[in-house]
Write a structure and sequence with these properties.
By secondary structure, the chain is an alpha+beta fold. The chain is about 60% helix and about 10% strand. The chain contains 15 helices and 9 strands. The strands form 2 sheets. Strands 2, 4, 5, 6, 8 and 9 form a 6-stranded mixed beta sheet that branches. Strand 4 and strand 5 form a beta hairpin. Helix 1 runs parallel beside helix 5, helix 13 runs parallel beside helix 15 and helix 14 runs antiparallel to helix 15. It is elongated and about 120 Å long. The N and C termini lie far apart (about 100 Å).
Length: about 550
């Protein structure tokens, strides 16, 4: 090829590459614009979700803990006045109570189906969860998913924009090589630079085409997937797991790659009143396949495997999760629980102790910073204790999940281990929460809860069959026998209603007796004429020097 013809060819190549570079520059600019737009959308959704969560929860708390509590107090005062045969006072209190209904949408409002949140004639308290779902919770979940979706769109267009920049850089190198080829006289060297430039150009164009053809999925445009997911989360918030599944089904049908929908549907199957564990396992595995970065999946997946009796797989899941998050106490206690039911008693106790030591270290670290004990640590200890209690009930009743025939070891020894370890976790929970330190020494005293009595009137009344009190008593007293008690010891009792601790009822005193005897302690120390025990299941624990020493339970019916 003559020198003149070669230079014309190089000129054509330079022109073509320049046109391609211009196209890529336009694509890069468009990708950058979409990246910026998605970034703005994600930030807006994040700010709106945060603001709505704060505003909504604050308003809901006001309507429940102020408006409703005032309503209930006025109702109780009216009842108390009736009992004193003061009909005028009862009428005034009743009128004030009824006027209060119109001041709060929780007390007088209705949902979109026309169902009232509070039926004052037939219900003891309003449906706070349904009110929260309608007023802000569903919308917050919608905004959170919009934030996630916009963030993924941003990442997708950011990747494209950066890729195009790289491709433009390659084309610049090609142009440089073509320019060198046009200025060098040696034919062989010309060919090397020319073919090198062509190769780099071809690689850049092919890569750019692949990037261009790669879609950037946007969950926000997927036929109401986010809306159905949010409605499902609202039902879960109301503990309507079974009803939520239909919404998650529609979300998944609209967006088969929607990992959060698989996760929440799996949780719904897992925590239904009658769990569907196989379906839960399938959904959790699918969610893990779609988004393995979601650390919460390890706890749910390992728990599902445990309930199915697949302890070996559950142990593996816990161990993998702990590689990324060694401070995840929930996984630590689930690992220990699986070891316990697998017949690995020694390993289980060692793992529980590691978790307790880690909890104590985290609380001590917070104390050095003059901060309160992290609430999540206390919650993990409580959950670990409850899991052991649930296992103890399975062993006692010989039914439930995991199936008793899959549990290894002698039932009596395992039940005893469950009680010992559960008491240890409960003791750490209270001691770390109250003192910032693990419980000191060993429990030497013996405490046996002998029962509860209604001490509202002049004569104490025992509960009925099944330890059930009726008629909303004003005062219930804890009775227990004790041995080996010493003066100066700290005695604490705490009360739970329907699984939640009534923290304001936690009572601590310095023991003044010595040796053995019987004791009576009112559960609600701030007795007033208007107070009544609300219907529910109550559970009471007694601690000596922050060691769990005794416990008992009773029920109040409306």
């Amino acid at each position: 090829m003559s020198d003149e013809r070669f230079k014309k060819l190089i000129a054509v190549l330079i022109a073509v590459v320049t046109v391609i570079a211009a196209i890529l520059a336009q694509l890069q600019a468009e990708a950058g614009n979409r990246d910026d737009r998605a970034n703005r959308d994600s930030k807006r959704a994040s700010v709106e979700a945060f603001g709505l969560q704060i505003r909504g929860s604050t308003q809901a708390n006001y309507h429940y803990f102020t408006a409703f509590e005032q309503y209930r107090e006025l109702e109780t005062l009216s009842e108390a006045a009736e009992k004193r045969h003061d009909s005028k006072a009862a009428e005034r209190y009743g009128a004030m109570r009824d006027r209060l209904l119109d001041t709060s949408p929780l007390l007088s409002g209705k949902d979109k189906k026309g169902k009232a949140y509070f039926d004052s004639e037939n219900e003891y308290e309003p449906d706070l969860a349904r009110f929260e779902s309608d007023s802000y919770y569903v919308q917050v979940q919608n905004l959170i998913q919009n934030f996630k979706a916009a963030s993924k769109v941003k990442d997708g267009w950011d990747y494209k924009a950066n890729s195009y920049i790289f491709h433009l850089t390659l084309l610049a190198v090609s142009l440089f090589l073509f320019g060198l080829a046009a200025t060098i006289a040696t034919a062989a060297t010309r060919m090397v630079f020319t073919f090198s430039g062509l190769g780099i150009t071809a690689a850049a164009v092919l890569a750019a085409v692949q990037v261009y053809l790669t879609p950037v999925p946007d969950l926000r445009t997927r036929n109401g997937a986010i809306e159905h997911y949010s409605e499902g989360m609202g039902l879960v918030h109301q503990e309507l797991q079974k009803e939520s599944i239909a919404e998650f089904d529609q979300a998944i049908a609209a967006a088969p790659e929607f990992s959060d929908a698989y996760l929440e549907r799996g949780r719904a199957y897992l925590y239904m009143e009658t769990p569907e564990l196989s379906k839960a396992l399938d959904d959790l595995k699918k969610a893990f396949e779609l988004d393995p970065s979601n650390s919460s999946l390890y706890t749910e997946l390992s728990w599902c495997q445990y309930l199915l009796g697949d302890f070996a797989e559950s142990i593996k899941t816990c161990q993998i999760g702990l590689q990324d998050r060694p401070d995840n106490l929930q996984l630590v206690f689930q690992l220990a629980l699986n070891q316990l039911v697998s017949g690995q008693d020694k390993e289980a106790r060692e793992t529980y102790q590691k978790g307790l030591d880690a909890a104590a270290a985290l609380v001590a670290e917070a104390a050095q910073k003059k901060e309160e004990a992290p609430s999540q640590i206390i919650a993990n200890l409580d959950e670990g204790s409850r899991m052991l209690d649930d296992l103890g009930r399975v062993l006692e009743e010989k039914k439930g999940n995991p199936a008793p025939d899959k549990i290894k070891g002698k039932t009596e020894a395992l039940a005893k281990a469950c009680e010992e370890l559960s008491n240890q976790l409960a003791s750490y929970e209270l001691s770390l929460d109250s003192t910032g330190k693990p419980p000191q020494g060993k429990l030497t005293a013996k405490v046996e809860v002998t029962g509860f009595q209604d001490t509202s009137g002049k004569t104490p009344k025992d509960p009925g069959e099944g330890d059930v009190f009726k008629g909303s008593p004003a005062q219930i007293t804890l009775n227990f026998d004790f041995e080996g008690m010493k003066k100066g010891q700290k005695v604490v009792h705490r009360t739970f209603k329907d699984g939640e601790e009534l923290e304001s009822w936690r009572w601590e005193e310095t023991w003044t007796e010595e040796g053995a005897g019987s004791w009576e302690e009112p559960l609600y120390p701030e007795y007033s004429e208007s107070f009544r025990f609300e219907p529910g299941e109550y559970y009471v624990e007694v601690f000596v020097d922050y060691h769990l020493a005794g416990y008992g339970n009773f029920q109040v019916e409306e």
